[in-house]
Specification:
Layout: H1 2-12, H2 19-22, E1 27-31, E2 34-37, E3 42-45, H3 48-51, H4 60-72, H5 84-96, H6 99-102, E4 105-111, H7 114-129, E5 134-137, H8 146-152, E6 160-163, H9 177-193, E7 204-207, E8 210-211, E9 217-218, H10 221-233, E10 238-241, E11 265-268, E12 279-284, H11 303-318, H12 321-342, E13 346-352, E14 355-362, E15 410-411, H13 413-425, E16 428-429, E17 431-433, E18 439-442, H14 450-468
Helix pairs in contact: 4-11, 5-11, 9-10, 12-14, 13-14
The structure holds 4'-deoxy-4'-aminopyridoxal-5'-phosphate.
Residues 50, 113-115, 118, 141-143, 208, 212-213, 241, 243-244, 269 line the site of 4'-deoxy-4'-aminopyridoxal-5'-phosphate (PMP).
């Protein structure tokens, strides 16, 4: 049965399929971390609907919330009308926001996908400021529609200026750590202050507090605070894309909470729908310049998604799952870092909370400063080689000529793909990310137990050992 389904869908669906090409499984049942295939095999699912499932598959509180709406006879589709279900969802979202934003927040329901909400955010700041330029970052991923794609570097848009996102392992300035982040911030500041550059007055800056598709790159809190003060001083709205980082994933309810940064606009999707499609923007009320009808869309009123989302947000908040993600994430990161000591092909292990990346490298290959972080095309799978700097060139301001700078080995997409396949053989589902798809990514549900987390680490370690052999 499974073989037939796989064959028919491969023949009928677009060649653009992403996950299905790498994961030849036919899920028929799922609960928590576990997916069961039509062949009866069980898998630990660390892809979690591309980071959507904060509570894992079919959590009882989510199912109950969905059933309650179905049993109540409420309309399932309400356009943008007011309902008790929407009221409860909005209240729960506002309850979790940074207080300085919650006190004066507006919410807009945007349609089913994260990319819909990104488009709304970009249009909002352009409308509100009357300006059109946009500041975005290397390695960013914001979605697949035109505006979001341009902000991710995957489509040409002269209005977008790309700035360096801070990275440790493959710091574009060759220093990493706090100094690398400081240099990235200074680069941004100098461009904004260059009156001839023409970018000093953009409509907004959009960033991910931790880049996901770009290869799991956590931004240092100090850098985020610098971006906040640089934009605030110049009246540039700051948009935080928390589509992937939100709802406890990184160890705080929203990833901006780690730094105390209060963005002007937050883009929310994935986990806020409790596994059903839902996307919103929340933003400061003085940006709410829309005229009636200025931004619309048919599918903004999915009551099942709002109810599932309310249940998810409340469960994460009441059970302090963000704190748990922080503790468990630290433990998993610590255990996975020993892999880097044991196997030269494990170049870097990084992450925040339960958003974890393991970068595979070719230890024999000469250094590649572009590596697998910060690609101009974010997580786009077909972006190999695009957007990088010339090989071997490292820019280290203040460095004396001739000083050697250690350059990490070249990213190894073939090894990452082999690890992903070896994981699947061992009943573990993982995804790849980064510019060259050389970063193995783990996005387990926040409800993962200690034993399950240990099993995930064991299986991944075993897969790496098999590939490294
Ligand atoms: N922003 C970020 C940070 C994301 O990770 C994603 C999806 N991976 C998106 C936007 C786009 O969301 P969607 O795929 O639902 O359009």
């Amino acid at each position: 049965v499974a073989e037939g389904i796989l064959r028919r869908q491969a023949a009928r669906e677009s060649a653009a399929r992403t996950y299905a090409r790498a994961l030849p499984i036919v899920p028929v049942r799922a609960r928590g971390l576990t997916i069961e295939g039509a062949d009866g095999r069980r898998y630990l699912d660390c892809l979690s609907g591309a980071g959507t499932l904060a509570l894992g598959h079919n959590h009882p509180v989510v199912l109950e919330a969905i059933r309650a709406v179905l049993d109540s006879g409420a309309p399932l589709h309400i356009l943008d009308l007011a309902t008790p279900v929407k009221d409860a969802f909005t209240s729960e979202v506002f309850r979790t926001l940074p207080p300085a934003l919650a006190d004066r927040a507006r919410i807009q329901f945007c349609g089913p996908a994260g990319t819909d909400a990104v488009e709304a955010a970009l249009k909002l700041v352009r409308t509100a400021t009357g300006r059109s330029g946009l500041l975005a970052f290397t390695g960013a991923y914001h979605g697949m529609t035109e505006g979001a794609l341009a902000a991710s570097g995957g489509a040409r848009d002269v209005r977008v200026t790309r700035l360096p996102y801070p990275q440790d392992y493959r710091c574009p300035f060759g220093v990493g750590g706090r100094r690398g982040a400081e240099l990235a911030a200074r680069w941004t500041e100098s461009l904004l202050d260059d009156t001839k550059s023409g970018i000093g007055h953009p409509a907004g800056m959009i960033l991910e507090p931790v880049q996901g598709e770009g290869g799991v790159n956590p931004a240092p809190d100090a850098w985020l605070r610098r971006m906040r003060s640089l934009t605030a001083d110049r009246s540039i709205p700051l948009i935080a894309d928390e589509v992937q980082t939100g709802v406890g994933r990184t160890g705080a309810f929203w990833a901006v909470d780690h730094s105390g940064v209060v963005p002007d606009v937050m883009v929310l999707s994935k986990a806020i729908g409790g596994s059903l499609p839902l996307a919103v923007i929340v933003y400061r009320d003085d940006l709410d310049v829309w005229q009636p009808g200025a931004h619309a869309g048919t599918f903004r009123g999915n009551q099942l998604a709002m109810a599932a989302g309310t249940a998810t947000l409340a469960y994460v908040r009441e059970n302090r799952l963000a704190e748990r993600a922080a503790v468990l994430g630290d433990r998993m990161l610590g255990e996975l870092r020993t892999l880097a000591e044991r196997f030269p092909c494990v170049g870097d292990v990084r992450g925040r909370g339960l958003m974890i990346g393991v970068e595979l490298v070719d230890p024999e290959a000469p250094g590649d400063p572009g590596g697998d972080q910060g690609g101009d095309q974010g997580g786009a799978r077909d972006s190999r080689g695009a957007g990088g700097r010339p090989e071997g060139v490292r820019l280290v301001p203040g460095q004396r000529p001739g000083t050697p700078v250690p350059v990490p080995p070249r990213a190894a997409p073939h090894l990452a793909a082999a690890v992903r396949d070896a994981c699947l053989d061992r009943g573990l589902i993982v995804e790849l990310g980064g510019r060259h798809s050389a970063v193995v990514r783990l996005l387990p549900p926040l409800t993962i137990t200690d034993e399950q987390a240990a099993a995930v680490v064991d299986r991944l370690a075993d897969a790496v050992a098999a590939v490294a052999r």
